[in-house]
Design a protein that fits this description.
Structural class: alpha+beta
Order of helices and strands: HEE
Strand content: 15-25%
Largest sheet: 2 strands, antiparallel
Helix content: 10-25%
Radius of gyration: 13 Å
Shape: globular
Length: 76
């Protein structure tokens, strides 16, 4: 994941969702593959150009997206 304003890498994301959403997301990832952020050295990771907005469900009262599940996503 990257900061939307700076594009700076801020961490990885674990995605828990339905099979239909995973399949849609994987198709989008394959169509919009991009280069790794500057200074990042993780060759086994699939990098995607910015442009996905996700709707997630997470633990109530948490500022971070702990135990998040992807409910849906759309193009920015």
């Amino acid at each position: 994941m990257a900061d939307r304003k700076t594009g700076r890498y801020v961490g990885s994301a674990f995605i828990n969702s339905s099979q239909a959403i995973r399949e849609r997301l994987w198709k989008r990832v394959q169509e919009h593959a991009g280069p790794a952020p500057q200074g990042m050295k993780r060759p086994a990771t699939q990098w995607v150009k910015p442009g996905i907005i996700g709707r997630v469900k997470h633990l109530r009262g948490e500022e971070d997206l702990r135990h998040a599940s992807l409910q849906d996503f759309r193009e920015e």
